[in-house]
């Protein structure tokens, strides 16, 4: 029997890379999004010799992370990424920060130079743990093969527990080659990281009493409800119906509550609906579930919902009292907290003031009457397509088709129109970069969604500028026959930038024109995909139908009105009741202060 | 729990018990610099050798909301076991040590010695032209001693930063 110097049986030992793959498999990993290089060759060698884990070869490491994000957000599982040392790791950083901001569980394996060369400016060395420390929820450098299995198990635990997030494991090449025994996942609790998920009963009772006694309640939900899993969305529906309170959602929470339900007010915030923002402003009790009082949502803090008593449910205590002080803090998983709130709401001895609630709804219906998302689409032959109309038709056609549909977006005006006009009725169907706002997110994220849901319809609602940021992934779509549809709202501008320049910088359109664009139809064709174009309103439906009917990837270039702006809009530094409505309404010029101008 | 935007700034002495692993100090410092919090003093050393734990003591200042945020941010770091706000919890002792070099001659020399005696500072090094005093005490006392030495020929100061714990039977 072969033994090493320490007397351990080397035949039962595996290489570090083999231990790694076994640990991934035990953590339920079925797919890795990655890109090879010298430092990770031992892992690629081990991947080659097994069938349990599928590897998807992307064309840029940033895209690997976004693909894993799409995979994770659409399934509720941890996404897995593999990149090489140095440039592989640094290319992944944008994706990691994106996942950190949006609370997406990712484990990213990065190659590293051998331990004895670390710190020597070796070839393709980067201080990956140093660079990614503020870009991750946590990171590890594995220095010995015998630490491999334990570290990988811990990384998955950290990525998915509490507030989810990205975790990096940096793997020196000698550790991948060194031999060690495999250790299965531990059954003992983590030494120090044990987030609380169960709500405090007293806080729940106080919250339930506030809700039941409310005359003008609002339920403001966010990405945390999605993070908490489908059961939490289901519980939310029951809570909203039990209370009869209006429900609004952040960009990140869309789908947790059905958009077509009459109790839903639409998205709130900078580009949220008139009724959602005014309800937030005028409410007397606000229940925030899994949202983080982001500046896109609150507007000017000292004018934010001045009369309300606030309840905040969040799994991360650092989200509570960060931007907005609240009266009742409930540190818990959204799903568990909603169930507890429901029970406490029923048990609370007060009787709800039904008359007050009815008056509140009457006020809200008045605001709804503004029809703030209204736009006018000229219907004459040859008329230019309004971007809102393109999204609306895309929604209606896919809805009538009844196929399971997932939407990803890039970043910009098209993203906002998608949020406003595509109505989600289920969680995990909407993938967008909210916190970091990363142009180039949508195509690779769609790739990850399609891998997880091979038979579903996956559409990236894109802008012509954003799509060029990760266009190389069209090649990945072709290689794996992933039928992702790229639906470009082509306004020939970085529209969101152009809008701010129009409204805040005197119409000086500095560097925001999308010059020298490629011919997207030919571009699609050169990537072995189908290219389609709609120039005018009469061509739109046919192009959408042809796009959906195609069994492979498609780029649909939808030529839209270049001058359209996203409304309503709460300018930076303004309050909810200082919203600007669009040209469809008498434009109310809210005074934008210098203080507001410095904000983004 | 805060319910209004209180703008009063307070000082907080925070003790953090951490897993003694690579990068943990960088995480704590990165948190403070990345989020723009103040660090007035920071000390770190292993305290439970057998269990591989270190204690970090931080003196910081901010509004109540910011200090609550600092504690929550520290607490969610994966290798952090416990965070205690000693200032908020009640009576605690906080001490630091300073080495203070004074270069002087004649009357000033005698005065430096006399003052060091009054402050219970010890002479740990002396030459014909200089002293190094070792002084332990609360931060304001150390500050006061250093200020007194300034006109007498203060040449160099080296301070440890604060070590702190709750009075009585309470532990972290
Ligand atoms: C161009 C652009 C415009 C935008 N405009 C808007 C806008 O008009 N309106 C808008 O809403 N957003 C807008 N955003 C997005 C915005 O920047 C933020 O990303 C978003 O508002 C944050 O959503 P959230 O509060 O739901 O928090 P998320 O970032 O989704 O955070 C989730 C919160 O839930 C908590 N959580 C996680 N898991 C759980 C769990 N299991 N249980 C309980 N809590 C949990 C987390 O700790 C965190 O506090 C825009 C973004 C871009 C790029
Ligand atoms: C990587 C990155 N760089 C810059 C920005 C700033 N930015 C936000 S929206 C936008 C314009 C997007 O243009 P396009 O993709 O055409 O979308 P549109 O707004 O026209 O719909 C820019 C440059 C960003 N969000 N991400
Ligand atoms: Mg554009």
The major pleated sheet of chain A works out as: 6 strands, parallel
CATH class of the largest domain in chain A: Alpha Beta
Q: Which secondary-structure class do the elements of chain B indicate?
A: alpha+beta
Morphology call of chain A: globular
Mean pLDDT of chain A: 95
- What percent strand of chain B? 35-45%
Spatial separation of the terminal alpha carbons of chain A: 67 Å
Radius of gyration of chain A: 25 Å
Top-tier CATH class of the largest domain in chain B: Alpha Beta
Tell me the name of the CATH homologous superfamily of the largest domain in chain A: Thiamin diphosphate (ThDP)-binding fold, Pyr/PP domains
Helix content of chain A: 25-40%
Count of individual beta strands of chain A: 20
Name given to the CATH homologous superfamily of the largest domain in chain B: ACT domain
Q: Point out poorly predicted stretches of chain A.
A: none
What's the pLDDT, averaged over the residues of chain B? 94
* Annotated CATH topology of the largest domain in chain B: Alpha-Beta Plaits
Q: Can you write the helix and strand succession of chain B as a string?
A: EHEEHEHEHEEHEE
Number of helices of chain B: 5
